[in-house]
Amino acid sequence: MEWTLKEDRVAVIALHRCGYAPIQIFDILKNLNITKRLVYRTIKRYNEDSSVDDRSRSGRPRSVRTPAVIKAVKARIQRNPKRKQKLLALQVGLSRTTAAADIDMDLVRAAIDDLPRRLKACIQNHGGHFE
């Protein structure tokens, strides 16, 4: 079982606080696919922030594709699946491309979720086997 990045960082810091040098930490945790770079960066981050958590990201925050807007788009699609993307985008206040991206991801998820049922029906229609 693979560890998460946070668990890797916690292991590095635990050894660091026990007095191990970075190269010793790397040698101990080498079997967990931890790189020297991760060890050195984790120790540096811990010394600067006293934390192993991810730093906050810079950049422009999401303002349009928020969970609330995506939920509203999905609700409108469920009420009227034949509604045009252009009209849907206008009603929700999105650009056409943003609405299209939401709709496309919805269709992909629906197809993936529906695959086992469709495959089972296909096998039954072909006499119990599928090639």
From TrEMBL:
Q: In terms of one coarse class, where is the protein primarily found?
A: nucleus
> GO terms for molecular function, please?
nucleic acid binding
* SUPFAM superfamilies on file: Homeodomain-like (SSF46689)
Q: Which Pfam families match?
A: HTH_29
InterPro entries (alphabetical): Homeodomain-like_sf (IPR009057), RNaseH_sf (IPR036397)
Gene3D superfamilies tied to this protein: Ribonuclease H-like superfamily/Ribonuclease H
Coiled-coil annotated residue ranges, if any: none
Subcellular location, in the record's words? Nucleus
Give me the Gene Ontology terms describing cellular component: nucleus
What name is this protein filed under? Transposase
**Species in which this protein is naturally found:** Parnassius mnemosyne (clouded apollo)
